[in-house]
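Note to self: keep these together.
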Amino acid sequence: MIYIAAHKKFNDPHLDGYMPLQVGAEGKDDLGYLKDNSGDNISLRNPNYCELTGLYWIWKNTEDEYKGLVHYRRYFGRSNLSSRISDVWSCQALTDQLRDHDIVLPCQTVFLQNAREQLLGCCSAETFDRLRQVISDKYPDYLTDFDSFFAQNKCSLFNMMYCRRELFDAYCSWLFDILFELEKHVSLDDVNDYDKRLYGFLSERLINIWSVHNGLIPFYSPVIQTEMSNLEKIRLMRRNLTNNIRYHIRESGSGK
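Structure:
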């Protein structure tokens, strides 16, 4: 099953194998979807965890053979330039990709700077260092991959994924163990509402590290963004290209 994270009413594509899931549902009006505040849940953490409250709910409360998470405005599909629901990959098509791949992730975004510098736009250096320390303490064998990831400039974003249940659950166990520990050492009292979404931002990076460390073969799927115009999509693709060129020119000039 692929769950569609949503915090408001949206145009449900009604695709086989897809199910809307209201995230941050605790204390909110019922949208008529599955809700992430039943069973074992962290729904109240949604302002800081974003769609991860849905990810946690899927992990703890479902036993699907294959599990996935997309967004009400972002889906795995045939083209980054499409907004058509007809171009969204069917659940079966994504499952077929797992014959030759271990996990489906969004196409990588290319940053102008390395991944650490890019993240520091919404995360303090102190928090970043604390994250690295938590990983060093709890999962020291991941540290080399952590440093390698943050030294380069590509990242699969959006907290979207699709894979077998065993991998999905293993990732969630690792991810939330790290984030819950980090939460003990970080205060978000004095940051704006956008930066309060810290744990959602961090997990977007961490899934890349987890995937590489575990030797997974990803299928990097285009992402259909239903609320983005074609012009915005073209600009995004062009920015990815120019960012990569400018990044490597800058790195070459720095003598690295």
